[in-house]
C-alpha cells in the first residue's frame, strides 16, 4: 500500500462527510459513493486526483481528492482534503433554493376553529 492512498471509508470520515466510519461504510455499501465513475467498496484506496460523487441526505457532492488523511482533524483541515467542482456547488445551491421556496409556499392548517369562527360558520350556514 502506498503512502498517498487511504481507504475510502476512512477518507470520507476524515473529510467530515460522515460523523463515524461505520456511517461512511454504510453509505459506500449502499451505493451512495462513486469513485471515478464506478461503484466502490469501503476498502477501495483513494488518493489525490480521484473523483468522488458522494450523496449525503439530499445533497450531492462531486469532489476531486487533493489530499489524504487517516485522522479526523478540524473542519479547516478537512476542507483541504478535497475541492468541490463548480457544477456541483451550483447544483447544490439550486436545490437548496428550491427547497427554501417550497417551504415558504406551504400553507399550514390553522387547527381547530375558535369559538368566534364557529359562530361565524353557524351564521353563514343559517343564511
From TrEMBL:
One GO biological process term: cellular response to heat
SMART domains recorded: S4 (SM00363)
Sorted UniProt keywords: DNA-binding, RNA-binding, Stress response
SUPFAM superfamilies: Alpha-L RNA-binding motif
Segments of skewed composition (Basic and acidic residues): 109-127
RNA-binding S4 domain segment(s): 6-68
GO molecular function: DNA binding; ribosomal large subunit binding; single-stranded RNA binding
Keyword Zinc found: no
PROSITE patterns: S4
Keyword Cytoplasm assigned: no
Region called Disordered, residue ranges: 104-127
Family: Belongs to the HSP15 family.
Protein name: Heat shock protein 15
Organism per entry: Roseisolibacter agri
Lineage: Bacteria, Pseudomonadati, Gemmatimonadota, Gemmatimonadia, Gemmatimonadales
